[in-house]
Amino acid sequence: MQNANEIVPRVWLGNRFAAMDEKWLKENNVTVIFNCTKDLPFHPSMTTRYRVPVDDNLEPAEINNMTRWSPEIAYKVLREYKTGKTILIHCAAGMQRSAAVMTIFLITLTGETAPVLMSHIRRKRPITFVPQANFRKSIEYYDALYHTDIQPNIRK
């Protein structure tokens, strides 16, 4: 399995090894990092970086953290994406936290529903959401929020 996979053009989903691989970061023009851990370091060359401080331990408090952060995460990833930058969203293994953040971002980018997007992500990076989506409640919360409150109010 690769350390990172491109889910949509210019947005990669990966693990801690991709995030620390200077050669890979340069080859793929990654200039923005979203680190979905509380403690993994950032590569020193990355100057545009965000931390999503969530543990993947299935504790309700951590699920609530992801839920609470989801609107801000979606906005920040989308803002960086719209400037044309290449982004890596990662956690330790690139399976759960970062995949949840990717889903939340893609809901905002595409307007598609979470189940469709989670399937797309799994096709691109098969280890995601295995054996289940640990942050499903957070994803479902944001999916409902986006489709009932945010999307209907976006000016066309």
TrEMBL record:
GO terms for biological process: negative regulation of MAPK cascade. InterPro entries: Dual-sp_phosphatase_cat-dom (IPR000340), Prot-tyrosine_phosphatase-like (IPR029021), Tyr_Pase_AS (IPR016130), Tyr_Pase_dom (IPR000387), TYR_PHOSPHATASE_DUAL_dom (IPR020422). Keywords: Hydrolase, Protein phosphatase. GO terms for cellular component: cytoplasm. Residues 72-136 form the Tyrosine specific protein phosphatases domain. The keyword Hydrolase applies. Pfam families: DSPc. This is Tyrosine specific protein phosphatases domain-containing protein.
